[in-house]
Amino acid sequence: MISTRHEKLGRCNSDELYKIIESLNPDVIFEEIPPRFFHEFYVYKSRRNLETDAIDAYITNHKIDQVPVDSDNIDPEEFIKNYSIVNKRIEGLADKIGFDYRSLIDLNNRLIATQGFAYLNSEKCIKIHRELNETIKTGLRKINNERLLQTNEVLKNTHEQRENKMLENIYTYGETHQYKNAIFTIGAGHRTSIIQKIPAFQKATQVKLKWSFYTH
Known about the structure:
Elements: E1 2-4, H1 14-24, E2 28-31, H2 38-42, H3 50-58, E3 65-68, H4 76-91, H5 96-115, H6 117-120, H7 123-143, H8 146-176, E4 182-187, H9 191-204
Parallel strand pairs: 1-4, 2-3, 2-4
Helix pairs in contact: 1-3, 4-7, 4-8, 5-7, 8-9
């Protein structure tokens, strides 16, 4: 599993991700995109992000199976809108909560820009994401706006649905396909919860995958 982000920032870019993919030489790449958008990314090229740019370059010279594993039942535009609503409210708080949130965002971006994938796949990144989540929870309790709380619950449920679907699709693929080496590109914000969910999926299926988590 490689923790990534969808937009380039400094040393976190498609060229660096390409190098990582090449070094791992996968037979299969599981991608954090919904199957219904696959052709838009790789055939019509009407959508793109950091990961698909790297993978698109890689498949030019390598034969692999590409497996889009995200949920087709989620509206990405609606998800982004709700995410923006919650985070902008916390960011705009004129108190210590807002200051802490802005400081953590700045630190996160600075480390992404200077350290790239080494940071995104580190314990430091997990710690900062945990602190960001706690700051958001504290801010939401202070604001105490029912609609905002409901929006955040929708976000949490959407995260759960997507992560469960992605792991389900990875294990389902393993039931009918044999391969030696695969990678799973996933946004760094999912890293902790995906790792926590894996043991349950390992127990629930006869497909036993040997997971490793990329570190630079």
